[in-house]
Known about the structure:
The structure holds two protein chains of two kinds.
Chain A: E1 4-11, H1 27-45, E2 50-57, E3 75-83, H2 86-95, H3 106-121, E4 127-133, H4 145-155, E5 158-162, H5 167-173, E6 177-179, H6 181-189, E7 202-208, E8 219-227, E9 238-241, E10 256-267, E11 273-277, E12 283-289, E13 292-296, H7 298-304, E14 311-319, E15 332-337, H8 342-358, E16 360-367, E17 374-381, E18 388-393, E19 416-417, E20 430-431, H9 441-454, E21 461-462, E22 468-469, H10 480-495, H11 510-514, H12 520-525, H13 527-535, E23 540-541, H14 570-576, H15 583-587, H16 593-601
Parallel strand pairs in A: 1-2, 1-4, 4-5, 5-6, 7-14
Antiparallel strand pairs in A: 2-3, 7-8, 8-15, 10-11, 12-13, 14-16, 15-18, 16-17, 17-18, 19-20, 21-22
Helix pairs in contact in A: 1-2, 1-6, 3-4, 9-13
Chain B: H1 3-10, E1 30-38, E2 46-48, E3 51-52, H2 53-71, E4 76-82, E5 96-103, H3 107-118, H4 120-126, H5 135-147, E6 153-162, H6 172-187, E7 190-196, H7 210-213, H8 220-223, H9 230-241, E8 248-255, E9 258-265, E10 277-280, E11 288-295, E12 307-313, E13 316-320, H10 322-328, E14 335-343, E15 357-361, E16 366-367, H11 369-383, E17 385-392, E18 400-408, E19 422-428, H12 453-463, H13 467-479, H14 493-506, H15 523-552, H16 568-577, H17 585-594, H18 604-615
Parallel strand pairs in B: 1-4, 1-6, 6-7, 8-14
Antiparallel strand pairs in B: 2-3, 4-5, 8-9, 9-15, 12-13, 14-17, 15-19, 17-18, 18-19
Helix pairs in contact in B: 2-3, 2-9, 3-4, 5-6, 13-15, 17-18
Amino acid sequence: MSKFATTFILDVGNSMQREDSMDKTTYxxxxxTVLKSILDSKIIQGRKTDVVELIxxxxxxxxxxxxEDGQYENLNLKFSFTQANIKMIKYLDSLKKKPNNGxxxxxxxxxxxxxxxxxxxxxxxxxKRIYILTDCQNDMLLDDFTTVxxxxxxxxxxxxxxxxxxxxxxxxxxxxxxxxxxEAISALSQLRTKSVKPTTLLRAPLTFGDPESHPEETLSxxxxxxLKTSELSxxxxxxxxxxxxxxxxxxxxxxxxxxxTLKVTKTNEDGMDEDITVEKEDLIKAYRFGKTLVRYTADDxxxxxxxxxxxLSILGFVKKQKIKRWWLISNTISVIPxxxxxxxxxxxxxxYKALFETEYCAMVRFCAREDSALKIxxxxxxxxxxxxxxxxxxxxxxxxxxxxxxxxxxxxPENIKVEDPNSSSSLKPKRNKLEARTxxxxxxxxxxxxxxxxxxxxxxxxxxxxxxxxxxxxxxxFNPYIQRVNQCISHRATxxxxxxxxxxxxxxxxxxxxxxxxxxxxxxxxxSCATALKEAFTLLKQETTKKTGKRxxxxxxxxxxxxxxxxxxxxxxxxxxxNEDGPDAKxxxxxDGLLEINSLFE
Amino acid sequence: MSNWIQNFENFEDDPLLEEDEDDFExxxxxxxxxxxxxxxPQMLSSFEDEHSFFETAISCVIKSLQNKIICSDxxxxxxxxxxxKKKQNAFGHENVYLLYDLDVxxxxxxxxxxxxxxxxxxxxxxxxxxxxxxxxxxxxxxSSVFSSVTKKLASxxxxxxxxxxxxxQDDIKKLRSSKTRxxxxxDLEISxxxxxxxxxxxxxNYDLFFKEIISEEEGISKSVSAISxxxxxxxxxxxxxxxxxxxxxxxxxxxxxxxxxxxxYNLLIDQKKGLPVxxxxxxxxxxxxxxxxxxxxxxxxxxxTDIKYFYEYGGERVVFTKEELVGLKNFGDPSLVxxxxxxxxxxxxxxxxxxxxxxxxNELDVAGSSSFFAHLLDxxxxxxxxxxCRLIPRKNSxxxxxxxxxxxxxxxxxxxxxxxxxGFHVIYLPFADDRRSVIDFKLPESKKxxxxxxxYLDLLLRILVSExxxxxxxxxxxxxxxxxxxxxxxxxPSLQTHFANLQALALKRSIKEDVEDKTLPxxxxxxxxxxxxIKIHNExxxxxxxxxxxxxxxxxxxxxxxxxxxxxxxxxxxxxEGLLSSLTVPELSTFLKKIGKKAAxxxxxxxxxxxxxxxxx
Lengths: 602, 617
C-alpha cells in the first residue's frame, strides 16, 4: 500500500504537565518532541499520499465534529487530514506556553479518530494508523469499549501508543505496539532515511539460448528486477530572488525565472558582427567529427539509432573469480523470479543454486527499456539472500588504461638499485630515492602486518555483554551530508519568524560524522603498533611552494590530533636543503606524480 | 520538441552539484600529440604476416585519429614522416616530411592516411623512402612544429614509431647533435614516447641510442619493452593517448601523526557520446545559448550575488545563501582517513554505487609515501584485507565511505589478458540511504503465512528444488563457459553505432547496417553446446512442478493427452466386446470426432453409446 493516513492523539491534560524527576522535562514536552520528530521526517519526505491528523485531548476548548450536547468535550481536532506541515510543528511548540486543563478521555478521542478516519478514507486503500501519546493518568469510560473494538477491526486500523495498561488490549488485537517514553524518544532520535517504495525496473524473461528458433531448447525464466543500491541525493534547492525581498510584502513571490536566449553571430550590411536571436524551431542538432559538424535531424537520429529489445540474456558463464571487484561500475540490481510463478521459481532456484555451488556467474546483456542504454554485466548469487544480483561492468570505451609504475621493487630486501653496467654513469650501486624505510625489509613487513591486524574492524565494536560486532556496516551508516541538510532545513523552518528573517544555522550534530570517524578505542588499542610502524619509515611532509592548481589541498592537522609529520625526520630536511636537483626542483615541472616518480628512479 | 533541447532546458546550475570529477587539474590549454613515423626502407619490410611495420604504424595512427576525432574534439594531432625522399618542413631539412601540422583532426586526414595504409605503392610514389636522414633534423623539426602552434598547450607529446635502434649509426658527430636537439625538446617540455618495433630478425636495443635521447621522465623501466605484435602496439596507443589526469590529491591519514599523500585517478568512467551542438538550420551557423535569471516580482535581471536558494518545508519556504548551502557540505578538509581493515569477503558485490577511483602515492607532498604505500599494499594483499576509509576527495565534496582494494598490477592466471594496475582501487560504499532493501510485492494469497519474500524464496529453494534440479542446471553452467570477459572485450554497441554513423555521414559513405555487437549472445553456439541439456532441464523443471502443483491445487486438472494409438479396427473390436469403457474420454471423443459423429453430452456413457451406435451393435 502506498497511501498512508495517520492520526496522532496527544494528551495535553493536567497530568502531562508533570515533570519527570529523571530528566526535569514534562511528559508533554517529551510527547511533543516525539511527535515533532515524526512530523519532521514526514515533511522532509514531502509525500502527497502521506497525510496526518492531529487530535488534542484535554484542551480547554472543544472543537470537533462529534461535539454535541456535552458529548466529546475537551477534544480539539486541530488539524484534519492533510500533508504534515510547519503549522503543526509551530502549534506543538506553542502548547507549553498555554497549559490546558480540560478533562481527558482517551476513549472519546479514539472514537473521534476512528470516525474521522472512516470519513476520510472511505473505501480507499490507505494504510491506517493511530498513535496515542498519553500518560494514562485519567480514567477511561469502558462502556464504549466493545463498539470501538469492533470498529477498529472492521476498518483494519493499527494503533500505536505510548505508555500503560487498558489500551494494551486494543493494541494487541490491532497488532499495535506500545512504546515506553524513553524508548520512543530513542527510537525516533535514531538517524532515519527517506524510504523509497520499491518499483520494478523491468519484468522480462531471463533467457539463455534463442527463444524464437529453439523455444524448447532455451532457458527462459520470468524475472522481476529492482534497484538494490542507488545513490540518494540531498533535496535540491530552488532559486530565490533577494532583490524581491525589498518589494511590497503582499505581492512578492521572490520567484526566479530562467530566461534562455539562442543567438547566432552574423555579419550585417555594414560589415559588422551582430548577434541575432534564433527560434528553437529553427535549430538543428549536429555532432562534431573533428573539425566537421555533422547535421542530424530528429528523423536521422531515430532511424540510425541502436536497437535492442528489453530483457536479460545470458551470454555464457564464467568463474566468479574472473570478475574483478573493481570492475563494478554502477549501482547494483536485484533479480528475483516472477512472484507466484512456480515454474519460474523452480528454474530460478536451480540456476541460483548451480551458480552458487559452482562459484560461477552468468555474463548478461541487460536492456531495461526498448532501445535504451544497454548494459553488460554479471549475474551473481546475492550473498546471504536467495536471489541474484546484476552488477554492471565497464565497456572497453569506459576504461582509461593509464600506466602506473609498479613499486614492488621498494620491498626489495637489498634496498638498492643496481645501475646498468653499460651506461656511462657511475657503476656504484645506489639507494633508490623513493626508499624511506629505516628498518630491514622483514621488520617493516612485520610491523605493517601487526598494524593491519590491530586495526581489524570485524570485532571492533563491543557491547556491554562483551560480544563483538563488525564496525562500519553500510546498513548502519547514514549519509552525513543528507542528515545535515535536513537538520538545517527543519531547524531554520521551525525557528525563523518568516522566510525573510532566517535564523543562524545550527551546529552540525556530531552524530552525523561520528559514524564515519575512526573509533577512539580502536585508535587507542592500535597505538603501539602504529607507533612502531611510523618509526619504520621516514615520512617527510614537503612544503608546497607553488600553487599548481586552483584547488590546492591544505594542511590536514585538524583531522586527527597528533604530531607534525615534519618533525619526524630532520635529517631528510637537511639532506634536501639547497639541493637544486632534489625533489624541490623537480616539483616545479608539473603536478603529474608519475613523471616525478620516474625521474626519482634514475 | 526533441530530447536534447529539453535536456539543456532542465539543466540547473545548482551550487550543490558535484564538481566535475575529472576537473581537478586546471586545464590550462589543449593536449597535443605529434606522431613521428620512420618511413625508411626497413620500416617497409615485413612485420607481421601481411603488413609492414609502416602499414601497422599508419593503421594505429588512423585508429588514434578516429578516436580523438570522436572523443576529445579539441585536442591537436600532427603527423611527421622522416626517411622519405621528399621533404616538407620549415627549415628545409632533407628527408623530413611534415604531413600534417598540429591541428584538430579532420576527416580528410583520415582519408589520406587510409590510402597509405592500404597501398604502400602510393606512398612510395608520392613521398618515396630513403635511409639518408639525420635524426637531429627530425628532432629539430619536432621542436619547430610545436613552437609554431599559437594556441596554449597543456601537454606536448611526441609518439615516435621506428624499428631502427641506432639511427645515427654510431657517428659521434651526429650523435652529439642529436643529443643537443633532444635536450632542446626537454627544455621546451616536449616529451617523447617511443614506440619501438621489433621482430625476430631484428630485436630492438634500447640502450644503443634512445636511452640518451628519450627524456628521462618517461621512465626507462616503462618504454624499454619493444613492440612485436600489432595488439601490443594498439594497447600502447590506447594507454597513452588519453592524457593522465588526476581527480584528487589528498593526504592519506593512517593513524594519529602518521600520514602519507596520494593522487586519485578515475580509470573507469562511463563514456558517453560527445555533446551535440546547435546550428541554425538555414545557415549552419553555430548557436550560442545564454542563460539569464529574472526576478518575477521586479522583472529585473539578477546578478549571481542576487540569487539565494530555498527549500519548501511543510508550506514554509526556508531560504539559504549560496555560501550557506556550500558550507553544509563541509565536513573537513579533503582527505582519506583510515578507519580500519576488513577481509576481502566482507566487501560484498551488492555494496557498490558508482564507478571506482584509484589511488597512487604522491611523493611530492610527503616524501616516503611510495615506500609506505608499497608495504601497505603488499601486506594487505598477503592478508587479503581491504581498508575501510572515509574519503573527502575535493573541497566541498561530501564525505563518503570507501573500501581500498589492493592491486599489485600483476596479471593473474584468471585474468591473463585484462589490464592490471599497481595501486589501490577505491570502491565507493553505499550508505544506509542508498540501499533499497525491501522488495515489497504481494505474495500469492496461499503463501501469505510466510513472513517475507526472502524467507519465501529461501523456502522455495529448499522445497521445490531437488539435487537433480541443481545438477542439471550445473551441467548447463559448465557447458557454456566464456573465455574473454574483461572490460577491453565488450565495446558499447550503442556508442559504436553512433560513431560508425557519424563517421559514415562525415566521410559521405554509406551507413553500416550492422556494427559488430559482442554483447549479443551467440545463440546458435549455445544451442549446439547446451540446447539438449536445456531441454532436459526445462522438462524436468516442468514435470516435477506438475506433481508439486497437483498436490497443492487438486482442483486444477491436468490436460490429458491421447497416448495410445488406437486404430479404427480396434475400436470396433472394443465396442463389440463392450470394453470401450476401458478407454479414456479424450480417446473416445477423438475417435468420435474422426468419424464425424456427435454424442448427446460429454459424459463417458453418452460418448460410448454414440460409438456403439456407429458400429451398429
